[in-house]
Design a protein that fits this description.
There is one protein chain. This protein has 806 residues and is mainly beta. The chain has 7 helices and 44 strands.
Length: 806
């Protein structure tokens, strides 16, 4: 037996460290599964299984993650497990005998039931177990996770945000680099598995707001969990090559009046302030909630680029002074046990002022330096209006849901450019840019559990997008650009669960229509019908091991900035414009994951491989209208591929010291055209993160976070490695209702972007923002605290939008 256990341990380590996906490794992967099955001891009388379903007695709703334990007559634990998302549980390999089944979940009374396993009755069904609330114990209690944990589910990785991560930053953008597989660059752009073609959802819904701007407006304390859906099922919109990042915000459905207040101050040379207020009132059939959050930012960013061949240096300096306010008001009306109506609206107001200078300094005294100053005054308003109706049929889990979502985004930019120096040919000018985007989304979802082990899901979705851009200039020609698209889609998924195996198969069919008009002339039109299949296979031989294999086909449709022919920005030497003729790129992705639960933690590892067709890449070409000028735009290139390996885990070394760590490595052949010459580079990216949580007392916790990113070679530049270290402390008071936190970010002041390159010109540079900051945070929770879980449409299933900031 000891030899078998050692073999299994070695097998698990091999799975964790596998670096590529090919047929031999997949065969080896399933061979290990078979080995694990045969490694069970044969000399024990293991004959029985126990299953059942756990629900809330009052609400008649499933209770996930309830603890199920089997005790013998001496009160010794024989076996156990937890309930899944549907409240179901199954415990295998129980020897003959008489036992006591105990079910526990925080806030509920412990349930006990005698059971007996015999050869004649080896498969015991405990039936539906209804837990009663322990109301007195729930008064004035708020449970917040101490440490961040990672769960590997059949179609996603779930990072449950604990106090250790909310301490490290004031906003969502600042904690994203702490999340496995996620990176944020110096401009706030987010990437998943080394690729920025990722779709961002807030509570399961897309947003019209720029991602970098949005993440800087959400306080980190408002985030409950982050889902990394790298191979989304057919139920999801197939956009985003690397998958979906779904940010789930805290929700409140407690009885009576409840609330939460958060305050945060982050400062270096300048100060950044954010705050939020979440209020909730539930009585009878009505749940009313309102939220307000703001972010007031003043931040300096700068850097330089040195042209070695022309011997001049370009210095950049930009000061952002931004203010944003987010409001949300919503109402849930529980008509009866089977019908619920929900409505909400959120409003996002933004006012930004950016002042910047671009200075070209020539080392040759015969040339005159050039200076460009920029004053950019911008404001925008994003509005969302949402209606949802859900009907539950008599059968548990059988429902139909209709959701209608309309959002509108209006922005105005007033940009003024002034020049000095040079040969006098540069003329001051002013740009006025007006953007309007309207999205209408209609979803109809139907779920039918055909049997206890099978489930069918069907749905229809229509998405209508209208975009209008107007550009006026005192120097360049005025222009108008409209970009409209309609997408109609149907999907179906079928899933089945066995004792140790489960699978899900699905397909989504979409019809995509797009039309682009530039200055009254149609510049692009397309009509595409596509099928997107997906499949998942899960094998769980025991409580400690789980294996997943998945496949999906996805699409990356060109973004508005990639197709818009209107100038996005410019400097004296570089101009950025889009390409209206871009085609979408398609991706076929396969991945395998393994999860091992330890006594004091868990380890998750995975590998993936992607095939990319008609890849969209950024390209830098010569500008014939400007001396030494360049044009930054986009184009379609040949087929490509990418691969990666990820390892993450968390472990409690002692009762006062725990940590979570992750390592990820991604490889991809990057292609581009530099100065009209095709170039191809095999790029490898790797990152390492570790976060330590040290509990000094019951109320005082310290954190130390470290991050390292290795060197990366791209088509145009090679970026140098960098690292940073954050430290922090968190103190709870007033019985856990109040918390105060302080942290020192980038304590060695090493977080900077450095690069060098030879194409199209030999050049090098560095950019850095205000990263060495001190953060002070304060939060307070108040209210009745009597928790009574509400089935607020699908919000607790993380598939539709819900309470919180947005």
């Amino acid at each position: 037996m000891q030899y078998q256990v050692q073999c299994i341990a070695i097998t698990n380590q091999i799975n964790v460290t596998m670096k590529t996906i090919n047929q031999k490794i997949i065969l080896f992967f399933f061979s290990l599964c078979c080995l694990f099955l045969t490694a069970q001891p044969s000399n024990e009388a293991i004959v029985g299984t126990l299953k059942g379903k756990i629900i809330d007695k009052n609400l008649q709703q499933p209770i996930p993650y309830a603890t199920v334990v089997v005790h013998d007559s001496a009160n010794k634990i024989i076996s156990g497990g937890i309930s899944n998302d549907d409240g179901d549980f199954i415990i295998s390999d129980i020897p003959n005998g008489s036992y006591t089944l105990k079910v526990q979940f925080i806030g509920y009374k412990t349930y006990s039931q005698p059971i007996e396993i015999t050869k004649q009755n080896k498969d015991v069904n405990a039936g539906i177990i209804a837990l009663e609330e322990e109301a007195e114990a729930l008064d004035d209690v708020t449970v917040v996770a101490e440490r961040t944990t990672i769960e590997q589910k059949i179609d996603r990785k779930v990072i449950n945000i604990g106090k250790d991560l909310t301490t490290t930053g004031g906003t969502a953008s600042e904690i994203m680099n702490n999340i496995p597989s996620v990176n944020v660059d110096q401009d706030g752009n987010i990437a998943l598995r080394g690729n920025q073609n990722v779709r961002i959802l807030i509570d399961g819904k897309p947003t019209n707001i720029d991602t970098a701007q949005l993440l800087k407006q959400i306080p980190s304390t408002s985030i409950k969990k982050i889902e990394l859906i790298t191979n989304p099922s057919a139920k999801y919109n197939p956009e985003g090559m690397s998958g979906i990042i779904n940010i789930i915000l805290h929700k409140n459905s407690n009885i009576g009046f409840n609330g939460n207040i958060n305050l945060g101050l982050n400062f270096d040379k300048n100060a950044r302030f954010n705050s939020s207020v979440d209020l909730n009132y539930r009585t009878g059939k009505i749940n009313f909630y309102g939220n307000y959050g703001n972010n007031i930012t003043k931040q300096l960013n700068g850097g330089f680029v040195f042209r070695e061949d022309e011997n001049y240096r370009t210095n950049f300096s930009f000061l952002d002074n931004n203010k944003s306010h987010l409001f949300k008001i919503g109402l849930d009306y529980f008509i009866n046990d089977n019908n619920t109506i929900s409505v909400y609206t959120n409003q996002n107001l933004f006012d930004g002022l950016t002042s910047g200078n671009t200075n070209i300094l020539f080392m040759n005294p015969t040339q005159n330096d050039i200076s460009q100053s920029l004053i950019s005054d911008s404001d925008n308003l994003g509005s969302t209006y949402n209606f949802d109706y859900k009907h539950n049929f008599k059968k548990e889990g059988h429902n139909i849901e209709l959701e209608v979502d309309y959002n509108n985004f209006n922005s105005d930019n007033d940009d003024r450019f002034n020049f000095s120096g040079g040969d006098g040919s540069l003329v001051d000018y002013k740009d006025i840019i007006d953007n309007e985007r309207n999205n209408t989304t209609i979803n109809l979802d139907y779920i039918n559990p055909l049997t206890e082990k099978t489930k069918l899901e069907l749905g229809y979705e229509t998405r209508l997008r209208r975009t209008n851009n107007k550009y006026q200039s005192t120097l360049f020609p005025n222009s108008k650009y409209t970009y409209d698209r309609n997408i109609h889609s149907f999907y179906a998924t079928y899933s089945q669960n066995f004792e140790k195996w489960s699978y899900q198969l699905g397909a989504r069919v979409e019809n995509y229509e797009v039309e682009a008009i530039f200055n009254s002339e149609k510049v692009f039109e397309d009509d595409i019908f596509t099928v997107y299949p997906s499949g998942y296979l899960n094998y769980t031989p025991g409580e400690k091991n789980s294996y997943q294999l998945s496949y999906s086909r996805r699409i990356d449709r060109p973004g508005l900035n990639q197709v818009n022919p209107i100038r996005e920005w410019s400097t004296p030497r570089i101009v950025s414009i889009g390409n209206p003729s871009l085609d979408p790129q398609f991706t076929n992705s396969i991945e395998a994951n393994y999860t091992r639960k330890l006594k004091k933690g868990s380890i998750t590892s995975g590998v993936f491989y992607r095939i990319i067709n008609d890849e969209i890449s950024q390209t830098l070409i010569e500008n014939p209208d400007v001396e030494e000028g360049q044009i930054l735009t986009f184009g379609n290139f040949d087929n490509n591929s990418a691969y990666g390996i990820e390892i993450s885990g968390n472990y409690n070394l002692t009762n006062w010291w725990g940590f979570n760590a992750s390592f990820d490595l991604y490889g991809q052949t990057q292609k581009g055209i530099i100065d009209n010459v095709s170039k191809e580079v095999d790029a490898v990216i790797y990152n390492f993160r570790i976060n330590n949580s040290l509990k000094a007392t019951k109320n005082l916790t310290f954190q130390v976070f470290g991050f390292y990113r290795g060197e990366q070679e791209g088509v145009q530049f090679k970026t140098k490695p960098f690292y940073f270290v954050n430290t922090g402390a968190r103190y709870s008071f007033m019985g856990g209702k109040g918390t105060a936190s302080v942290n020192f970010n980038d304590i060695f002041n090493t977080m900077r972007f450095r690069f060098s390159g030879d194409n199209p010109y030999p050049q090098n540079g560095k950019f850095k923002g205000e990263t060495q900051t001190v953060f002070l945070g304060l939060s307070y929770r108040f209210g009745s605290g009597k928790n009574r879980k509400a089935d607020r449409k699908r919000r607790d299933n993380n598939e539709k939008s819900g309470g919180g900031i947005l």
